[in-house]
Design a protein that fits this description.
Layout: H1 5-10, E1 18-21, E2 25-29, E3 39-43, H2 55-62, H3 65-75, E4 81-85, E5 101-106, H4 126-137
Antiparallel strand pairs: 1-2, 2-3, 3-5, 4-5
Length: 143
């Protein structure tokens, strides 16, 4: 895609600090560096989000997740944890519409990164949960 910032990075039109590259993916430091070591993993094929992946692309991209995670852990042993995030859609905080996976090393609770979920368990009976599960199961397609 001509105007996609990540496609431009992949093509070398915009500089980046590369961490890993092969025929299928590129991993590079996020320019924002929410925490030191914040890395992005992108497929070289332009896909806007997770919904556009086929099984082959998913395999080729997601097989690198443990590899990049272990490399970050080894490079930053002082990090106490690692968030791995994949945002899909504007409401889910996706800001670049070329699929990408964030790796955010965590050093302290005050390191500038937060992910909090509301606990709505009291609003969901076993029956409501079963209905939700059935809605999802009905839509699962075989690979």
């Amino acid at each position: 895609m001509d105007d996609c910032i990540f496609c431009k990075i992949i093509r070398g039109e915009i500089p980046s600090v590369k961490v890993y590259e092969d025929d299928d993916v590129l991993a590079f430091l996020d320019i924002s560096q929410v925490t030191p070591g914040h890395t992005l993993l992108v497929p070289k094929k332009h896909v806007p989000d997770i919904y556009a992946y086929d099984t082959d692309l998913a395999t080729r991209v997601f097989q690198h997740v443990p590899q990049i995670a272990r490399a970050i852990k080894a490079a930053f042993p002082e990090a106490q944890g690692l968030n791995i995030c994949n945002n899909n859609g504007e409401l889910a905080y996706q800001s670049v519409f070329h699929s990408h996976i964030h790796f955010v090393p965590r050093y302290t609770t005050a390191d500038g990164f937060s992910m909090k979920w509301a606990n709505n368990a009291d609003q969901y009976t076993p029956e409501k949960l079963a209905k939700i599960a059935e809605q999802i199961k009905a839509q699962i397609k075989e690979a």
